[in-house]
Write a structure and sequence with these properties.
single chain, mainly alpha, two-stranded antiparallel sheet
Length: 326
């Protein structure tokens, strides 16, 4: 029996629920996936998207779903993780990142050709799972992946732009541009995970859409926190660092100045303001998610409290690395 099926006592904490659900997801991954390359890619993942989806699923069912329905939800979680894992494999190649989760990136170990093709294989297995669950799941899977791709394309093109372009000037609204990339590249999959979870719970269209909006806000907050941690640790994020510093300095940053030493000095100089900007945006999205979690359309049960607590919980887990708490 899966552990979560036994966790019906309302005194269970959010962290206990997440830990037990994580075990269920890991077990289902190992039941479905036999390809050692794919298992290697998935190893060490936080499973944030299906974990968020698990709360959306449980809030819809009140924890009273059948075992078969819960198993179908877990199968869907595997599809979500396959899509996310494939995006990471391809992102590492595009960004030239050599490490992932404390290990050499998959393309470093297996070669670019293998990494690209294994990433595609992951996507097709995920799509097979979605198709097996019905047309609306297949459509959601395709739409989600399309959003992720468009976000990556926007980021690549943004990196390639001359920062003197009027659309990316010091006078522009930095987070409007930045948020559009996050919306497509990251928040889409958080949103879709919650919406799919509602579908698996046979929730209404209105409730499914409300949970999708909630997931999007959580995804925004998480990605902003992730990027703030990278910035504070001195990691280079070209699509973020240069235009952000341009805004803070009130002048355009020439692309010729983007050597690591110069950027590091700029980050250190503007660190307090960078934190202020990021934390303001993070808090905005966390507040939006918390508000959505309390709407009347959301069923009132123990899992609704988990839904409300998750935005702060997941964000603080990330910000803990740089000793910041919301």
């Amino acid at each position: 029996m899966y552990m979560v099926d036994m966790m019906m006592n309302s005194s269970n904490s959010l962290e206990e629920f997440l830990n037990e659900t994580f075990k269920d997801i890991e077990k289902k991954i190992n039941e479905i996936i036999s390809d050692e390359n794919i298992l290697t890619i998935l190893e060490g993942g936080k499973r944030l998207r299906p974990l968020l989806g698990s709360i959306a699923f449980k809030v819809c069912t009140g924890g009273n779903e059948t075992k078969d329905k819960y198993q179908r939800f877990l199968e869907g979680c595997v599809g979500v993780e396959l899509a996310h894992g494939a995006s990471l494999v391809h992102d590492d190649i595009i960004d030239g990142d050599i490490n992932r989760r404390g290990e050499p990136a998959f393309y470093i170990k297996s070669g670019i050709d293998n990494a690209i093709l294994i990433g595609h294989k992951m996507l097709t297995i995920g799509f097979d799972i979605a198709i097996a669950h019905g047309e609306k799941f297949a459509r959601l899977y395709v739409d989600s992946w399309r959003g992720t791709l468009n976000g990556q394309l926007r980021e690549i093109n943004f990196n390639a732009k001359d920062l003197n372009d009027a659309k990316i000037s010091a006078d522009s609204k930095f987070f409007q541009i930045y948020s559009r990339i996050i919306d497509l590249k990251t928040a889409t999959l958080f949103s879709s995970s919650c919406k799919a979870a509602a579908f698996w719970a046979d929730a209404s269209e209105d409730l499914s859409n409300s949970l999708a909006n909630y997931g999007r806000e959580v995804g925004f907050a998480y990605q902003l926190a992730d990027d703030l941690v990278d910035l504070e640790k001195g990691e280079m994020i070209d699509s973020v660092v240069l235009p952000l510093l341009s805004r803070l300095e009130k002048k355009s940053i020439k692309t010729g100045l983007s050597q690591a030493k110069v950027i590091k000095k700029q980050i250190e100089k503007n660190s307090p303001e960078i934190k202020k900007l990021y934390l303001s945006e993070i808090k905005k999205h966390v507040t939006n998610a918390e508000r959505l979690s309390t709407e009347g359309i959301i069923p009132t049960n123990h899992y609704k409290m988990f839904l409300q607590a998750m935005p702060t919980y997941i964000t603080n887990k990330m910000l803990k690395e740089i000793k910041i708490t919301l």
